[in-house]
Amino acid sequence: MIGMRIKGLGKAVPKRTVSNDELSQLVDTSDEWITSRTGIRSRHIATTETTTTLAIEAAREAVVTSELSKEAIDLVIVATVSPDTMMPSTACKVAEALGIEKATCFDVTAACSGFVYATQLADSLIKTGIAHNALVIGAEVLSKVVDWKDRGTCVLFADGAGAVVYEGTEDNKIYHIVTGSRPDGAEQITLETAGFDHTFYEREEVKPAIKMDGKGVYSFATTTVPRSIEEVLSVASYSADDVDWYILHQANSRIMDRVASHLKISKEKFFKNLDEHGNTSAASIPMALYDLSPKLKAGDKLIASGFGAGLTWGTMLFEW
Ligand code: ACO
C-alpha cells in the first residue's frame, strides 16, 4: 500500500445534555459569559457511559460503515487522556468488544492533538506495510476529571467519542501530517494521575482534575495552529484557499476565527460543532468530521488541526 483513505466514520455521545444555564446553578457563571467567550451552549455529560463504552459505540459504527470485515482490521489505536484503565488499554477493550482478533492495539496520549497523532501512527504503519487497515478512535469522559467547582474549566470540557476506519490503498488520500510539541509549556494544561496507596513512597493523595492556564493556551493555539497549517500547505503546494473545510480542535470559537483571519480565508470554511459538544479533547476532531461528513463531496480537501496539553499540536491535510 502506498497510502490510506477514510473508509468509515462513527460517533457516540452520552444521552444527558447539560446547558450553560444548568452549569450556572453549579458555579458562578452565565450563559452569556460561556457563549461569548467560547461559543459553547451545551454539552453531553456521561451519567452511565464510560470512555470505553463510548469508544466501542463509535468504533462499531465506523467499522459497519466502512464495510470492511473485522478480520481486515489489524490496527486499533485509541487517543484519550481519560481512559478507564491504564491496563488493559482502551484499544484492547474495543477490539475485544468488536471481535477484532490479533490486531496491534494501544492507546495514545497527546491530549487534544491525540487523534492527529494516532492518525500519523496509523499512516506510518500502513505505508510501511506493517498494518493494512486501521481503526483510530478519539474517546473521552472528561467530566470525571474536571473539578466541578472550577468555573475556569468545568464549563469547557465534555464527553464523547469519534472513530475513523482508514483503509490502506494504492492511492493516497492522506496527503501530509505534521505533529510537534513545546514541552516548555508543559504546565499550561495538566491532569495528574490518581494517587496510590504507596507502602514505601511518601506521596500525597491526588484527586485528578484538569488545570489550565486558559490565556496561555489561547495564545499558543492562535500562533502555533496557523504556522502548522502553513507548513502542511507548503509541503503539498496548496494555498489556504484550495482547502474546502477546516476542522480545528473544538476548544473555542474565537480561536477558529483568529486562525481564519490569520490565513485570510472565510470563517465559513471552519466547521464548528462545539456549541453542542464543548471541548471533548481527543474526540473532538473525529466527532466534528462525522458531523461535517453529510456536507462533504468526493474530492473535497480538508485540514484537521489539534492542539492542547504537552503542549502539543498535530495538523493533517487530506482528501474526502
Ligand atoms: N464564568 C464567568 N467568569 C469566568 C469563567 C466562567 N466560567 N471562567 C473565568 N471567568 C472569569 C475569570 O475569573 C476572569 O475574571 P477576572 O477578570 O475578574 O479575573 C475573567 O472571567 C476572564 O478570564 P480569562 O481566563 O481571562 O478569560 P478568557 O477570555 O481568556 O477565556 C478561556 C477563557 C475560554 C478558557 C480561553 O482562554 C480559552 O479558550 N483558552 C484556550 C483553551 C484551549 O484551547 N484549550 C485546548 C486544549 S484543552 C486540552 O488539551 C485538554
TrEMBL record:
Enzymatic class: transferase
Localization annotation: Cytoplasm
Occurrences of domain Beta-ketoacyl-[acyl-carrier-protein] synthase III C-terminal (ranges): 236-320
Record's keyword annotation contains Protein biosynthesis: no
Family statement: Belongs to the thiolase-like superfamily. FabH family.
PANTHER family membership: 3-OXOACYL-[ACYL-CARRIER-PROTEIN] SYNTHASE 3, BETA-KETOACYL-[ACYL-CARRIER-PROTEIN] SYNTHASE III
Subunit structure of this chain's protein: Homodimer.
Name assigned to this protein: Beta-ketoacyl-[acyl-carrier-protein] synthase III
The organism of origin for this protein: Cellulosilyticum lentocellum (strain ATCC 49066 / DSM 5427 / NCIMB 11756 / RHM5) (Clostridium lentocellum)
